[in-house]
Amino acid sequence: MATTTTTGASNSTDPPPPSSSSASAKTGFLKTCFNGVDVLSGSLVCHARSTEHGSWSSLAVFLAIAVICCYTGILLQRCMDASPLVTTYPDVGALAFGRRGRLLVAAFMYLELYLVAVDFLILEGDNLHKLFRGAGFRLGGLRVPRASPLVHWAGMPSAISLYSFCFSGHAVFPMIYNGMKERRKFPMVLFICFALSTLSYGFMGIVGYLMNGDALMSQVTLNLPSGKVSSKVAIYTTLVNPLTKYALVVAPIAEAIEASLGVLVRTALVVGTAVVALAVPFFADVVALTGALLSCTATMLLPILCYLRVRAKVGSRSRGWRRRPAWLLLWLVPPMLC
Prior knowledge:
The chain is mainly alpha-helical. It has a single domain (28-134, 142-337), classed as Amino acid/polyamine transporter I (Up-down Bundle). Helices cover 68% and strands 0% of the residues. It contains twelve helices and no strands. It has helices at 20-23, 29-40, 47-54, 58-81, 89-132, 156-166, 173-178, 186-212, 229-261, 265-279, 283-314, 324-337.
């Protein structure tokens, strides 16, 4: 059996076969798809707000961002296949640019995950307030809004930021990839996950905007009529969703620093996110900030840069047409971030 060296990336693009001891712990195709959709569907309730910011034409931008993020997810897989030592997103940065690359990717990744955890707490607080203390939210019922313009240019930057946040799952993709039984099917998993998530987001954005128009709030659940059983069911479902993801989002941050700071790190992280959520209780603003500063870079720009750098190091196997989309996006993504 061949041994694995630790001096660099392997020239083979095939992932190493899983050992027999870990094969039983791997997830199947359907479960991996479920995990991927779960990761990508975290901001479903605020997608209608994104459509309201940019109006109907922003849905074309949303579809473009979905395609770009799906492609950059595949680029992450190719980077991980370049070396059996790469298991996390910061490892990809280290493989591409050394220690500085690891620090840069880790900074964007962990700060993004931290703000996502804050977003979850704000989401919980807003919906609990709606459910039990919703005296301040009085709606005359659902309605079809008046004619709306095709484009809101002033709201387009906010819409792009919110759309980018919708697909900010790249920090978790390496863990999902490493947990697969059949890693060669990961591109198909990404395609299915992004397709289902895009359809869900698109449906929620269109219906939510049609029903509420300019009165749409940061979360579509806050526009639901109070006192109805169906509204309570929808809000309770929304409350459960962040609870199932909060620990998953915080875990990578805790694992990265608890070795040096002790066992109280997880508690400190939870307290810290709660304090930030109380200090900045504006869900849409925090989500837009996360999408603009972190998600766009972590999900689109960094995977492209790492892939091109890794391919330049590994050799000529991926020269030609396989690199052209990455080079094209390298010119298109930075203006989008600005």
